[in-house]
Design goal:
Number of domains: 1
CATH class: Mainly Beta
Distance between the termini: 29 Å
Number of helices: 1
CATH architecture: Roll
CATH topology: SH3 type barrels
Strand order of the largest sheet: 4-3-2-1-5
Shape: globular
Length: about 70
């Protein structure tokens, strides 16, 4: 299942995404998917854009922006 999930995420690189883990809700642009890790460039916040690396195994759910 992890390979299918990673492949689906990889097909959506460059889109706005919301990722929930046990402790965080991360919103930003999906930048890359590799070796069981995704990179999200966070949008908003006080410090501009932050890079967040998230293990695929830590992801509870993902939501993609429906805005065009």
């Amino acid at each position: 299942m992890n390979n299918t999930f990673a492949a689906e995420l990889a097909s959506r690189i460059g889109t706005t995404i919301e990722i929930a883990t046990d402790n965080n809700l991360i919103e930003g642009v999906l930048s890359s998917v590799s070796l069981g890790v995704v990179l999200v460039i966070e949008t908003g916040g006080y410090s501009g854009s932050n890079r967040r690396y998230i293990a695929l195994s830590a992801i509870n759910f993902v939501r993609f922006s429906s805005a065009a």
